[in-house]
Design goal:
Chain B: Keywords: Nucleotide-binding, Phosphoprotein, Transcription, Transcription regulation. Chain B: Homotrimer. Chain B: One of its GO terms (molecular function) is enzyme regulator activity. Chain B: It comes from Dietzia psychralcaliphila. The structure holds two protein chains of two kinds. Chain A has 15 helices and four strands. By secondary structure, chain A is mostly helical. Chain A has a single domain, classed as Ammonium transporter AmtB like domains (Ammonium transporter fold, Orthogonal Bundle), CATH 1.10.3430.10. Chain A is globular, with a radius of gyration of 21 Å. Chain A starts with a helix and ends in a 14-residue tail after the last helix. Chain B is of the alpha+beta class. Helices cover 20% and strands 37% of the residues of chain B. In chain B, the strands form two sheets. Chain B has a four-stranded antiparallel sheet with strand order 2-5-1-6, with helices on one face. The termini of chain B are close together. Classes of the chains: A mainly alpha, B alpha+beta. The interface between A and B is medium-sized, with 18 and 10 residues.
């Protein structure tokens, strides 16, 4: 599990490379800093109240847990004799804290790609802290922590199709929602937040006039490769053990991603005439996102189908921003929201009914029930995230969101960080 | 004295340099430039968005020679830089009023 947690943590610097390569030369450092600073802020906040809000026992309306119950991890990871290392499940609980913090970090870092090149760094830092508190921790609680969107007897799924005995003397949803590794909590959450933010913050000043070409596709490819590597921790680690479920998640993650890359490239070949490296890297991410919620509940053949559709779907979806005129700079909506929704809903079609989940439409006459549950959960998450992101935006507004037009033109790296990514042969004297 | 300026494709610069050296021309200046002629540039596609890249990378070669050599130099450059495909570039000649070698102060043809 520590290995898995470390792999997931690596995804955030990998994301910095992926996003950094896609921005222009004058903005790459700011883009990478948005990922790195997410590690900084969330790393601290998670220990203070993030864990308590997500996995605390004092549930508030099914929405979140009491942030003060285990503030600063007080009293949760052990008693006086074996503080920090008491083993509550298969491994010490502190390892679960380590694993979960990495998910919170990567989720908020994902959002930054949508608002590249135009947001004040200080405002971003504050937003990171506010958003994980208002949107991520509650959604993690709702889906994974026994809240409204979980198997819980008080959850939405139980309200729709009723409950059954869970075998331990309690009740659980008859048709429980499935989010194996974070399709709802991570990708729908980040993608919807990205959409709301770009609509509220607005376009870059020269959006639609200037070409925003990626400044380094090799960086993008490197980042995508490292993301794939880290994703094994993300998905296989979500089996919470070195077991068959972890193996299934590993193989599903790989074949879905492979199929998604091919799906994206084929779409490009037909539409644009050329299969591109940016398309291959993007297809990889689209596949990784889509298989995330489904990795533990579909057969590898189902994973291939799920991935191929995801690649093609996202390749088409990234064009939406040009059609509708919103500046989702690096296609967080087109990739993470679309693939996250597709993966979550596809479970209702492709789930095989093993590993304790209900079967989907293709495997059972009753499969439509799971499909309904998945759609309801996804919609509930969309609405919740949209509202919380809008609130976080308003809270941060007094700080000012946008840098000036002049700073945008000259480059956010110089304006916000007084640095440039690459030596440009300008004579700088030591003052 | 004449200034011969040539805009050529970057990969032809070694041939141009070799041809000029063989003809006894022992100095030239090059710079990396960008521009376009009649054919314009090319298009690139990123995630389905098509971008027109009008400015194509070129090398500018500048040589100062005496009046009699100018035509030879033009011919040498044209021969060395020609591929027969679109975008091979252009060569032109402009008069030079005076020239001074910085190290010695020599002027005129002696400074070439």
């Amino acid at each position: 599990m520590l290995m898995a947690a470390s792999l997931v943590l690596l995804m955030t610097p990998a994301l910095a490379l992926f996003y950094g390569g896609m921005t222009r030369q004058k903005s790459v450092l700011n883009m990478m800093m948005m990922s790195f600073s997410a590690m900084g802020v969330v790393g601290v906040v998670y220990v203070l109240w993030g864990w308590s809000m997500s996995y605390g026992t004092q549930d508030v309306l099914g929405l979140f847990a009491n942030p003060f119950e285990m503030f600063g991890l007080a009293g949760v990871i052990g008693d006086a004799d074996n503080w920090m290392v008491s083993t509550l499940g298969a491994y010490p609980q502190v390892i679960d804290v380590a694993f979960q913090v990495t998910f919170a970090i990567i989720t908020v870092a994902l959002i930054s790609g949508a608002i590249a090149e135009r947001v004040k760094f200080g405002t971003w830092l504050v937003f990171v802290g506010v958003w994980v508190t208002l949107a991520f921790f509650p959604l993690a609680h709702m889906v994974w922590g026994g809240g409204l969107l979980s198997h819980s007897e008080n959850g939405l799924a139980s309200m729709i199709f009723g409950t059954v005995d869970d075998g331990d003397g309690g009740l659980t949803a008859a048709v429980g929602p499935v989010d194996f590794a974070g399709g709802t909590v991570v990708h729908i959450n980040a993608g919807m937040a990205a959409l709301v933010l770009v609509l509220l913050i607005g376009k870059r000043y020269d959006f639609g006039r200037t070409a925003f070409r990626p400044h380094s596709l090799p960086l993008v490819m490197l980042g995508a490769g490292l993301l794939w590597f880290g994703w094994f921790g993300f998905n296989a680690g979500s089996a919470f053990g070195a077991n068959g479920a972890a193996g299934l998640a590993w193989i599903n993650t790989t074949v879905a991603t492979a199929a998604a890359m091919l799906g994206w490239l084929l779409t490009e070949r037909i539409r644009d005439g050329h299969p591109t490296s940016l398309g291959a890297a993007s297809g990889v991410v689209a596949g990784l996102v889509a298989i995330t919620p489904a990795a533990g509940s579909v057969h590898p053949l189902g994973a291939i189908a799920l991935g191929a559709v995801s690649g093609a779907l996202c390749a088409l979806a990234v064009g939406l921003k040009h059609r509708f005129g919103y500046d989702d700079s690096l296609d967080v909506v087109g990739v993470h929201l679309v693939a996250g929704l597709w993966g979550t809903i596809a479970i209702g079609l492709l789930a095989t009914g093993t590993f304790g989940t209900a079967p989907g439409v293709f495997y059972s006459a009753e499969g439509w029930k799971l499909l309904v549950v998945q759609i309801v959960i996804a919609l509930a998450a969309l609405v919740f995230t949209a509202i919380m992101t809008a609130i976080a935006y308003v809270i941060c507004r007094p700080l000012g969101w946008r840098i000036t037009e002049a700073d945008e033109q000259s480059g956010i790296d110089g304006a916000e960080h007084a640095e440039s990514a690459y030596e440009a042969s300008t004579n700088a004297l030591i003052r | 004295m004449k200034l011969v300026t040539a805009i050529v494709k970057p990969f032809t610069i070694d041939d141009v340099k070799a041809a000029l050296e063989q003809a006894g021309i022992h100095g030239l200046t090059i710079s990396e430039v960008q521009g376009y002629g009649r054919q314009k540039g090319h298009t690139e596609v990123y995630r389905g968005a098509e971008y027109a890249v009008d400015f194509v990378p070129k090398i500018r070669v500048e040589v100062v020679v005496d009046d009699e050599t100018a035509d030879t130099v033009v011919q040498l450059v044209v021969d060395a830089a020609r591929t027969g495909k679109i975008g091979d570039g252009k060569v032109w000649v402009t008069p030079v009023e005076s020239i001074v070698r910085v190290r010695t102060g020599e002027a005129g043809d002696a400074a070439i």
